[in-house]
Design a protein that fits this description.
Blueprint: E1 4-6, E2 25-33, E3 36-44, H1 47-68, H2 76-82, E4 89-90, H3 93-108, H4 136-143, E5 151-154, E6 159-162, H5 175-189, E7 194-199, E8 202-206, E9 215-220, E10 228-234
Antiparallel strand pairs: 1-9, 2-3, 3-7, 4-6, 5-6, 7-8, 9-10
Helix pairs in contact: 1-5
Length: 239
């Protein structure tokens, strides 16, 4: 999780806050999605519509989770992983483009970012369940399955093929940020004038608060736990 704290002045729970001469209200909901904390906030001119917008936002996150989850056996991503080294898998255009974009990022970062790092899940676990370190042989075997250049994309057939058995892709590094961007895109299309989506530190905003003030992001102090080092205004952007 990024060391970012989002503070909504005057909003501590799901509530309505009047601003700009009482024209707009703020509606907020916090819940767990994609196994992470999500804070969804919309600024609207009708509170009831705001609650409907939040339900639409939640449904969109769940839709994306069903698409990119490597834990859901019914997801397209799981189907790709099951067929690693076996056959190409035809996928939706949305997932195809997300994988294509991920490969482009891998090329830009010279492999520092790589969705095939998911192959390491079998030897390195970050859920506290590891009782011993993996052996050098286990590590070497898992590392050999990592490499974005081993992903074959067919733009004509819209298929994805992982060239070696044991390969896996996962979207843990970009999944929440992608979901936040897609929720923003959806709500903007619904004419929601402003809002903030905080997906466990992956944050995107548009418009302003109901009061007309800018959205502010608090950055944690690196040497003082719980204290804010500085505040950054966020205008029509993401972090």
């Amino acid at each position: 999780m990024k060391s970012l704290v989002v503070l909504f002045f005057g909003i501590l729970t799901m509530t309505s806050v009047c601003g700009q001469a009482g024209k707009y209200v703020t509606v907020k909901r916090s819940l767990k999605l994609m196994d992470s904390s999500f804070d969804l906030t919309v600024v609207v001119n009708n509170e009831d519509i705001g609650y409907i917008n939040l339900e639409e936002a939640i449904a969109e996150v769940r839709r994306i989770e069903r698409l990119i989850s490597s834990w859901d056996p019914a997801s397209e991503t799981s189907e790709i992983n099951r067929n690693a080294g076996v056959k190409p898998v035809k996928v939706s255009l949305e997932l195809f483009k997300l994988i294509e974009r991920s490969i482009q990022i891998s090329e830009i970062t010279n492999g520092a970012f790589d969705i095939t790092i998911a192959a390491m899940d079998g030897v390195w676990k970050f859920d506290g369940s590891m009782s011993a370190f993996p052996t050098p042989e286990q590590i070497s075997s898992a590392v050999s399955k990592v490499g974005y250049k081993k992903i074959a994309l067919d733009k004509v057939e819209n298929t994805v093929f992982l060239k070696e058995k044991g390969m896996k892709i996962g979207f843990g590094a970009i999944g929440k940020g992608y979901a936040a961007d897609k929720v923003k895109e959806l709500l903007v299309s619904k004419q929601v004038p402003a809002g903030m989506i905080n997906a466990s530190g992956d944050i995107t905003t548009w418009g302003t608060k109901a009061t007309g003030e800018k959205w502010l992001i608090g950055v944690d102090h690196p040497r003082s736990n719980g204290k804010i080092f500085t505040w950054l205004p966020l205008i029509e952007s993401s972090v």
